[in-house]
Amino acid sequence: MIITTGQLCDEALAREFFQQSEGEWRSQRRYYTLKSGAAEEVISAISIKFLVKGSADLVELGKMHELEDEAALVCGTKITWESNYIAPAKKQITGSTVFGVLGNTLFRDRGFATSKPVTAEYFFRDSKTMHLRTEYSGSVFEEEIKLVGSNYRTRQTIISRAGEELMIGQYLEKRIAN
């Protein structure tokens, strides 16, 4: 990823963004499959915990990614969720993921569509809007997460393969507790 004018890649911005995201959230999501026009609705309870440099979760993430210095990740976040798929079929999914920052790379213990560790390149358009780009298994995941005031976040994910957009996920998240 080439950082252009108006884009910031800064570990301090990532730290501040993750700290501001810490808390309990209610997420309303809709996934659109572009070819079929199908839509899936999901309501999730999300817990976001800020992780400081050297925390056990970040050290473990460093080991997963075989970083030379396993404690090199400067900060991160651990997200746990309980998702209830509403339509078209009801199902419940729980899980967690850990993110860690080093330079302009966001290390993850799992991807959107894989349980294997992945990396994303990130940048900020401004201090409230984080952009991520993740590539694996022939797919590209582009995500924008925007803090709106202190109690809302919006997210949008676009999933592409071979240059063709396949799915769009749109999210509205409301903070329910700090």
Folded structure, characterized:
This protein is 11% helix and 59% strand. The protein has a single domain, classed as Lipocalin, CATH 2.40.128.20. A hairpin with a 5-residue loop joins strand 1 (23-33) and strand 2 (39-52). It has 178 residues and is mainly beta. A ten-stranded antiparallel β-barrel has the order 1-2-3-4-5-6-7-8-9-10.
Q: Write the CATH architecture name.
A: Beta Barrel
> What's the story with the biggest beta sheet?
10 strands, antiparallel, barrel
Cα end-to-end separation: 33 Å
Task: Give helix % range.
Answer: 10-25%
**Relevant CATH superfamily:** Calycin beta-barrel core domain
| Average pLDDT rating | 93
Strand order of the largest sheet: 1-2-3-4-5-6-7-8-9-10
Low-pLDDT stretches:
1-6
- Examine the coordinates and then state which fold CATH places here, giving the name of the CATH topology: Lipocalin
Q: What is the total tally of β strands?
A: 10
Radius of gyration: 16 Å
Number of helices: 2
Number of domains: 1
Q: N-to-C SSE series?
A: HEEHEEEEEEEE
Q: Under the CATH scheme, which class?
A: Mainly Beta
How large a portion of the residues is in β-strands, by DSSP E? Answer: over 45%
Gross morphology is globular
Question: Structural class of the secondary elements?
Answer: mainly beta
Key phrases:
Lipocalin, mainly beta, ten-stranded antiparallel β-barrel, 59% strand, single chain, 2 helices, 178 residues, disordered N terminus, globular
Concise overview:
With about 180 residues, the protein is mainly beta. It has helices at about 10-20, 55-65; strands spanning about 25-35, 40-50, 75-85, 90-100, 105-110, 120-125, 130-135, 140-150, 150-160, 165-175.
